[in-house]
Amino acid sequence: MRTRVYGALVATLVVGLLAGCHTSPTTDMDPAAESEQAIQGGDIDTHDAFAVGILDRQTSVLCSGALIAPNLVLTARHCVSEISHEAVRCATDTFGKDRDPGSLWITVDARLQNTATSSFYRGKKLFVPTDAKLCGNDIAVIELDASVPDTVPLVTPAIARPLTDSAYYARSIAAIGYGSTSPAGMGAGTRRIRENIAIACIPGDAKLGCPRDDQLRASEFVTADGTCQGDSGSSAYDQRSYDARVPLTLGVLSRGGSDRDADRCIGAVYTRVDAFRDLLVGAALEAARDGKYTPPSWTSTPPFDASWFDGGDINGASGFVGTNASSGSLDDSGCAAGGRAPRAWDDLAALAGMIALVVTAGKLRSSRRRR
């Protein structure tokens, strides 16, 4: 079946407006009414409390995130800043005004259908990149108004080594988020996990290099299917570290697509954490001072040479195209086209090629269709 990709931010899931506003609200939340990108084909996850849900009380939007310190949540910037529309154009799209951090409610609970059984923390501060361009900078950090209990595990940002270090990082991820299980918006508001999702391409990787295209930035990477609407801001957890119960986050979910019939979410583009070491370390040090605790050990990780990130898009630097992804591009909406390879394709290289090829071949149009 031919695939059409609808360019849209994976993140947002519109839910019923919450009443009241305090750290542990007891008001009921209406069922999800309309969504835009949940872990499809995944299992309900009641254990991984480091993967959090984020509710914006002002916009009634649901996103996902990850606890990287007792009072610090990593997520996508489009979950906390204004955007003009959801159909992404990397050449022109920028972030607008940051939202009031106090309107962001964060929970470690696995289910959000009823706030009477969920407790929430409120946002206190926002940390975002100085560059307002959407593509390649879709990452943000929320400082909470209080620290989570010591019993809640934390996640470590993978900033010690570049993502291209295949000897250290697996070539698959675990995705955990609160989104829907299909573009129709079913199943949103429950934390789900899907493991062993293949990484399709990484700019600068010797074997999994991405095709040349100005819709993918050097500070991003692409995975196969698994995430959907409402998962925006959720982390890509290195599968090897997740299996060892010391999860590393490789990046945050920025955007993805759906197939022509809008019955399945396909592909995902993540913003890499290794491109934003200074942002994350600075936020963590400030949050530690506010929370009066010792900064996490990863904040003292020495920086590696990340000068190759300069230039923004993968056309502007050398060595980004791997021999296994020599043709095609991402679609003009900036969303990954594909990620779901034909069953006969069991080679990751072919998967990376499909993400590029399916879209250019059909010159597919983008759409603002809300999921």
List the helices and strands and how they pair.
Layout: E1 8-9, E2 13-14, E3 34-35, E4 43-44, E5 51-56, E6 61-69, E7 72-75, E8 104-107, E9 121-127, E10 140-144, E11 156-157, E12 172-177, E13 192-201, E14 220-223, E15 235-238, H1 239-243, E16 248-258, E17 265-272, H2 277-291, H3 348-362
Parallel strand pairs: 11-16
Antiparallel strand pairs: 1-16, 2-3, 2-6, 4-13, 5-6, 5-8, 6-7, 7-10, 8-9, 9-10, 12-13, 12-15, 13-14, 14-17, 15-16, 16-17
Q: If you had to describe this structure to a student in words, what would you say it looks like?
A:
- The chain has 371 residues and is mostly beta strands.
- Helices cover 9% and strands 24% of the residues.
- The protein contains three helices and 17 strands.
- A six-stranded antiparallel β-barrel has the order 12-13-14-17-16-15.
- β5 and β6 (61-69) form a beta hairpin.
- The two termini are 21 Å apart.
- It is an enzyme of class 3 (hydrolase).
- GO terms for molecular function: hydrolase activity; oxidoreductase activity.
- Residues 1-19 form the signal peptide.
